[in-house]
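Archive entry: two folds, one per protein. Generate the first.
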Amino acid sequence: MSSIRVVLGLTASLDLDIEHTDVKTVFLHGDLDKKICMEQPKGFIIKGKEDYVCKLKKSLYGLKQAPRQWYKKFQSVMGEQGYRKTTFGHCVFVQKFSDDDFVILLLYVNDILIVGRNVSRIDKLKKQLSKSFSMKDLGLVKKILGIRIE
């Protein structure tokens, strides 16, 4: 929560643009790095093979690993775009283009705030992210985590 306050404070003090996006089905994006099997779902049990299990290829909601695998995937995609994780917070990514030109991305589970002076850089990042994840562009931020933004 302190990361959001700092980013919002920086946005207000430097008069930066701030956009909001939402990643759809966020925990389904994670890649599994271990073998995980599950019982056949009810209604999909094959007769004569009731004792078989399903080997998962992708993360599912309800897995203990799902949030971690989502974060690892997101961090990888951000690294490919040239963004680095800050030491201030694990969910704050930044890329500096010049002294006064930078973009900050703040991730909170499936909500993303993107902050910067250059709207075209923000739009470019949103387009790059939408190539990797199914996203909904919510435009200028109005509300996040119960905080109304004006």
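Generate the second and append.
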Amino acid sequence: MIAPHRTERLRILVIAPSRHPIAEPHAGGLEAAVWDRVHALRTAGHRVTLVASHGSDFLDETPVELRLPSVAWTGPVTSDEAYPPGYVDEVAAVLARLVDRLERDPRAFDVIDNHSLHPLPVASSGSHGIPMLTTLHTPPLPELVDAAAQAGPAHAFLAVSSHTAGEWRALGVDATVQSNVVDPDAWPFGRGGADPIWFGRIVPEKGPHLAIEAARLLGRPLTLAGRVGDVDYFERSIAPHVGHGVRHIGALRRSRLARLVGGSGVALVTPRWEEPFGLVLAEALITGTPVASFARGGVVEVLDGLPGTRLVPPDDVDALAAAAQELLAIPRSERRRIREHALERFSATARRADLDAMLSRHASLAARSDAAAVAS
């Protein structure tokens, strides 16, 4: 393992999305990416304060009053698109308290690393002047687009893919591309297998029902691993197939999920929306498992030129099954090459120095700009 890169020790505030804890088993790729970010920054020696929901890891530096509320349902959970009554107001209240503290003590942090989907951190960035980087993990959200117009001069945007950057740029939000990364130690090389796997959030836009159709065409059993994010969709489109060549094993901690993915023959990726990045692509490839995917959104650039991958037209299940069949036929020895190329593109360990340098550079550039403004 590469030794942690040493650089100046920064005081970093990381703001997470609010809905799910930043803890295992990760609710989705966004939560996994933020967890890895905080872990990497702390490993590099930075002092990191995480604003995230109750139940998250890394909250040792976070005052209780600045911890975001957990989603608590009194009735059945319907989908990831819904919130319990009053929840959004509770989140806004915590973020308002955070902004108030930053305004009262703008020297508390050297830089803010923002991953929140709430507009308040972006819109208020000019009021405290602390250098802030906001990562755009999703297609454009109207509230965030409006907030970007109010962002302070020490604020910059990052996007997880060129595709996503282009979507935001079309609405006036300029962003630099910084793709997602994967911890290679958490996703070790796998032994491979004979059957396909699908993993991720079980929601309509991820399309696991199409993976079921493709596996049936392959004549092979399919494992689905992931949290049910839309109960109605699961009951309607997934549950009737469970036990009939399909098994659903729910959300798994990363170590178990990585062994499962690494022990599979091919990963099926079936986005039905303009996927910003698709972290499952990188995770599967780093274990050496080939990937067959619909060519949609940022997936095309993520997989561009990588061995052990096949892209097919969106929603074309026949083509997906044919691509998976090709990948299942490649020699096991090819898995090493798949991992090596994936490490070059996605390894968090290899790119840790870049992350340190980016945050340090943004903090120092903003500081110099602020000093110049005061001098004038």
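Annotation attached to the second fold: The CA atoms of residues 39 and 58 lie 8 Å apart. Residues 352-375 form the longest helix (24 residues).
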